[in-house]
Design goal:
Blueprint: H1 4-17, E1 25-31, E2 35-41, H2 53-86, E3 89-96, E4 99-102, H3 116-127, H4 134-148, H5 150-169
Parallel strand pairs: 2-3
Antiparallel strand pairs: 1-2, 3-4
Helix pairs in contact: 3-4
Amino acid sequence: MITDRARQEVRGWIIGRLPQTWFTELVEVSTDREEITVIGRLPEPDLGPEPGAVERQAACEGRITEFRERTRGARVEVAREANLRFGRQVSWGAVCGTEKSLFTHVSAPVMTRLRQPERMVLDTLIAAGVARSRSEALSWCVRLVEQNVDGWLGDLRGSLAAVEKVREQGPDPDRDTVTLTARPQDAAEPEAH
């Protein structure tokens, strides 16, 4: 489990390390065991009075592409530094207007054992053309759960944060050493025969 403190450290480092001119707002800095995802908002292009929806969408896509190409070398350097510091890959993305684009992202293999009824669900999704493989079908299922049980997942994450807070109040095994010493009155007296 990634602790809230670790998430705060990653977010703080990213905020401090990124050039201030890159984004108008840092939309997301999320962390899991494999990856740090950084997504920022770019300013919308000035299109003049009353641009059409197609023009606005194309302009925002162009702005994201321009940012991606212009910052490629610097983003690679930031990602390298973050990888050395946090042991995770960095994935990048940008938002402009209503357009969102992820440039890179880690696709981590997840080992799982599924019973036949669970495999049949995945195979049904493949047969229906929803997914091309069991891996893609499982990813689709995870996204569906994420979309439909946000409240429950939020409550669960809140509970994990409470557990983390209680753990932080306990001793730190790397810092605190507990030494037990026997007091003379605690020693057992020899039995009389």
